[in-house]
């Protein structure tokens, strides 16, 4: 699988908040993928800006590429609220539902594993 950075291009320099959000969505998608697509074949997906690698099935890898692209191209970077409180929805409707499903599923599991730092993102 191509790495996300090759698809998006090397000209974009991610801000600190973008990096944090990309890392977070990558973790959430990975937890969701393992839980929902347990036996599916996975390949490595490299996040931009040396933010790590995630092992994902093709469906989750495609969603993560879409989410990272949208986050890097967010027009509200200066005053960026959390996506669920945003006045502009970057995701199309089916993917907006998908990200809600992913965040709900993965957020609960990460909190149960003791990742209390995700509580803020989960509720706000």
Terminal CA distance reads 33 Å
Largest sheet: 2 strands, antiparallel
Order of helices and strands: HHEEHHH
What structural class is derived from the secondary structure elements? mainly alpha
Determine the strand fraction and express it as a percent band. 5-15%
Strand order in the sheet with the most strands: 1-2
How would you portray this structure in words?
It is a single chain. By secondary structure, the chain is mainly alpha-helical. The protein has one domain. Helix content is 53%, strand content 6%. It contains five helices and two strands; from the N terminus they run ααββααα. The chain has helices at 4-8, 16-36, 58-72, 93-112, 119-123, and strands spanning 43-46, 53-56. The protein has a two-stranded antiparallel ribbon with strand order 1-2. A hairpin with a 6-residue loop joins strand 1 and strand 2. Helix 2 crosses helix 4 (93-112). The longest helix has 21 residues, at 16-36. It is globular and about 40 Å long.
Question: Could you give a short description of this structure?
Answer:
The protein has 124 residues and is mainly alpha-helical.
SSE map:
Layout: H1 4-8, H2 16-36, E1 43-46, E2 53-56, H3 58-72, H4 93-112, H5 119-123
Antiparallel strand pairs: 1-2
Helix pairs in contact: 2-3, 2-4
């Amino acid at each position: 699988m191509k790495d996300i950075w090759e698809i998006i291009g090397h000209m974009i320099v991610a801000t600190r908040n973008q990096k944090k959000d990309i890392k977070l969505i990558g973790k959430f998608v990975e937890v969701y993928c393992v839980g929902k697509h347990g036996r599916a074949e996975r390949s490595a997906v490299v996040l931009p800006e040396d933010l790590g690698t995630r092992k994902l099935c093709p469906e989750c890898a495609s969603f993560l590429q879409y989410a990272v692209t949208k986050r890097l191209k967010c027009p509200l970077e200066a005053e960026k609220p959390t996506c669920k409180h945003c006045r502009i929805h970057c995701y199309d409707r089916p993917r907006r539902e998908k990200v809600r499903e992913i965040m709900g599923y993965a957020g609960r599991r990460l909190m149960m594993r003791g990742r209390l730092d995700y509580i803020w993102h989960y509720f706000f």
